[in-house]
Specification:
Elements: H1 2-37, H2 51-70, H3 77-80, E1 87-92, E2 98-102, E3 128-129, E4 140-144, E5 156-162, H4 173-185, H5 190-212, H6 232-259, H7 266-300, H8 308-337, H9 340-364, H10 369-404, H11 419-474, H12 480-512, E6 516-523, H13 524-541, E7 545-550, E8 555-558, H14 560-577, E9 583-591, E10 594-602, H15 611-614, H16 633-643, E11 647-653, E12 656-664, E13 673-676
Parallel strand pairs: 7-9
Antiparallel strand pairs: 1-2, 1-5, 3-4, 4-5, 6-8, 6-13, 9-10, 10-12, 11-12
């Protein structure tokens, strides 16, 4: 019993906090909005400089001007403005001559004239304090320009005057506004603070009520009340309707209070504001009840089952969509299943049938206007469709003519074509793209073939010429030292020619696959360490620092002899082309079920060639071919890697050159696999 009371007490306390926070929050928000609208937060603000006072002064000026224009000799202003703090001076705008005035209680001398007065020829919004030393010092002044067209030859200007201190007069609208200003100005700081505190308390209380919704003391789980069993869509419709009515009432009352506040008394304003607050709080509580029942339904599960109409509507739309899609797909498939000629025949037959039906209706109708109109619209549609078809045929004809003339860059815009015209246009574009690719491939093949012949001739001719020249020198008289030098050159050039010949043979075998391959578990760390040690002297001679990074247990399925040749070619490439004084990174990492062996270095020469071209035969990064080498190393490395069922990749990024060999990673217990190229 104690638990039941405690839980109920907390809920009642939270509901009370909701009511209080809504009430004080609405009042604080209204006060803050009023202060913001009237500029109560401006520095040095007084009532006479607010919008409310300015609009009241304009209304009084309009009434006075209407009275004067109706009767220019009217002089009973003291009776008309008996219960008002408003005073005025009506002048001729061009001369400053006073034509009417009422300045009772103000120390102003009208005999001095106002031609040089600083308030002439200027519009003041809102009212401003008169300048020191002027006739209006200590008064608040604004102006009003009566519409005296046709009534007076000279344009008029009215100076609206208010005293610095407005006397307390219950019948004076300016006095009522002064009391409103004094009251609200005192809450200009308190209201925003109260609004923030109310928002925090409201958020806390609402969160607590939403968390406790559906829970009852002494019961586990969620308990549904009678309101939680009503279809939610009905509650939603009712809540939206009530909220619309409440929001309309609140907005209308606020409009009367906020925008027309200068017409009513302070009592009327307070009474209307109290009613508006009550309506707002009731509406907010109804909205809170809707949220609480929604939260209860979400906690209980099956939230969407509460929307009966929505579920029926969605089900109906889904079934209709499925039916239309199935029907459309069936008709489209059936239409596409037949050839173009039968389709055209069916289309013509359908047009003839529609024409017969329309003509029959036209001939048998008492009022032939609408059948004739439908027949005309149908034939116009056929006419425009035929014109569209002819235009698309002309576009296809032009595309075919362009291709026949050899313009392979021409592309037909198929977005505006339809049906078979579009497919035919896409086929023409595909033909152009295919022919472009074939021509580019053919040109590339011819270029590579020409470069291959040129490079092979150059690389064979150079050592062969040296051999012929030094043999001729040996046949001539020479000293013993010269003979030894000639023999050394002959030996070096002969080895170079032999290396080139062996590379050519190996490149041919590797590219054709005419080479036996024995795949077996191979230790990557041992092979890389051995290769790096083999090249360490040459690398140090080239001022290159090697950074080796490899896991000791990394093993790949490869042919050790071929993999060694791949590494030999890559490190040889580094020795020839790497920039002295830089580092060379040799790494091996796991990549899923594979192992990636990478060699990275900085090129000595600018690499202005594509990575794919570097792997072609007799292609070097050194375009001038100053360095020794056949240009077959990378091509052989790629072919040997592919023979081992691996991947060979090159990456060129500026001067960074990276060669990567990817091979399958295997366990060390795997038996050797011998494969022979077909």
């Amino acid at each position: 019993m104690q638990y039941r009371f405690s839980a109920l007490g907390w809920k009642l306390l939270a509901l009370l906090l909701v009511v209080l926070s809504l009430t004080f929050g609405f009042l604080a928000g209204y006060t803050t909005a009023w202060c913001l609208a009237d500029g109560y937060y401006d520095e040095g603000i007084v009532y006479q400089t607010t919008d409310n006072c300015y609009f009241l002064a304009q209304e009084q000026a309009q009434i006075v001007a209407a009275r004067f224009l109706y009767d220019p000799d009217y002089n009973r202003w003291n009776i008309m403005l008996e219960n008002s703090s408003f005073r005025f001076i009506l002048l001729e705008e061009e001369t400053g001559k006073v034509v009417a005035s009422y300045i009772e209680g103000m120390d102003i001398d009208l005999t001095k004239g106002f031609a040089e007065n600083p308030y002439l020829y200027r519009e003041d919004y809102p009212m401003s304090l008169g300048e020191t030393g002027s006739a209006f010092e200590g008064l608040y002044v604004t102006d009003y320009y009566p519409n005296n067209a046709g009534l007076s030859e000279t344009p008029l200007q009215m100076l609206c005057l208010l005293p610095g201190v407005i006397a307390d007069n219950p019948k004076d609208v300016f006095s009522q506004g002064q009391r409103q200003f004094n009251f609200l100005y005192g809450y200009r700081i308190t209201a925003p603070v109260l609004l923030g505190l109310s928002a925090v308390l409201l958020a806390v209380a609402v969160c607590f009520l939403l968390c406790q919704s559906g829970r009852r003391p002494g019961r586990e789980g969620i308990t549904l009340r009678w309101i939680d069993r009503v279809p939610l869509d009905l509650i939603l419709v009712a809540a939206v309707g009530v909220m619309l009515i409440i929001s309309t009432l609140v907005s209308e009352i606020l409009y009367v209070i906020f925008y027309n506040r200068r017409y009513g008394t302070n009592f009327e304003t307070a009474f209307s504001l109290a009613g508006t607050t009550a309506i707002f709080v009731c509406g907010a509580l109804l909205l809170l009840a809707f949220f609480c029942t929604t939260a209860t339904r979400i906690k209980a599960g099956g939230f969407w089952r509460n929307f009966l109409l929505v579920r029926l509507l969605l089900w109906g739309l889904q079934m209709l969509r499925r039916g239309l899609l199935c029907l459309g797909r069936w008709l489209l498939d059936a239409f596409r299943a037949i050839g173009l000629a039968p389709r055209a025949a069916l289309a013509v037959l359908g047009v003839i049938m529609i024409e017969i039906i329309l003509l029959t209706v036209f001939m048998n109708s008492y009022d032939p206007f609408f059948p004739a109109l439908f027949l005309l619209i149908f034939n116009l549609g056929l006419f425009f469709l035929a014109i569209k078809g002819v235009k698309q045929l002309m576009a296809l004809k032009e595309a075919g003519s362009k291709l026949a003339a050899g313009d392979l860059s021409y592309q037909l815009d198929t977005s505006k074509l339809f049906w078979d015209f579009q497919r035919h246009g896409e086929n023409l574009n595909a033909i152009a793209e295919g022919m472009n690719k074939a021509v580019e491939q053919r040109m590339k093949s011819e270029r590579l073939k020409t470069e291959l012949i040129t490079n092979v001739s150059h690389d064979i001719k150079t050592p062969l010429t040296s051999i012929v020249n030094y043999v001729d020198l040996l046949q001539k008289p020479h000293s013993e030292a010269e003979g030894a030098q000639y023999l050394e050159v002959l030996d070096r050039q002969a080895k170079r020619l032999k290396k080139l010949t062996e590379d050519l043979v190996e490149a041919s075998k590797a590219s054709t696959g005419n080479m036996a391959v024995v795949l077996a578990p191979t230790s990557v760390s041992e092979l890389l360490s051995q290769a790096v040690e083999e090249y360490r002297g040459r690398l140090e001679q080239g001022k290159l620092e090697v950074v080796l990074s490899v896991r000791p247990e990394l093993t790949v399925l490869a042919d050790g002899r071929l993999l060694w040749r791949v590494l030999d070619n890559l490190l040889g490439n580094v020795v020839k082309y790497a920039l002295p004084g830089t580092r060379v990174y040799v790494t091996a990492v796991e990549r899923g079920q594979q192992a990636a062996i990478a060699v990275k270095n900085i090129s000595r020469e600018a690499l202005n060639i594509d990575a794919d071209e570097l792997m072609e035969r007799f292609v070097r990064g050194d375009a001038a071919r100053h360095s020794e080498g056949s240009g077959l190393g990378l091509n052989i490395a790629r072919s040997l890697t592919q023979l081992q069922k691996g991947q060979f990749q090159l990456t060129v990024d500026g001067d960074l050159f990276k060669a990567e060999v990817v091979l399958p990673q295997v366990a060390r217990t795997l038996q050797p696999e011998v494969t022979t190229a077909p």
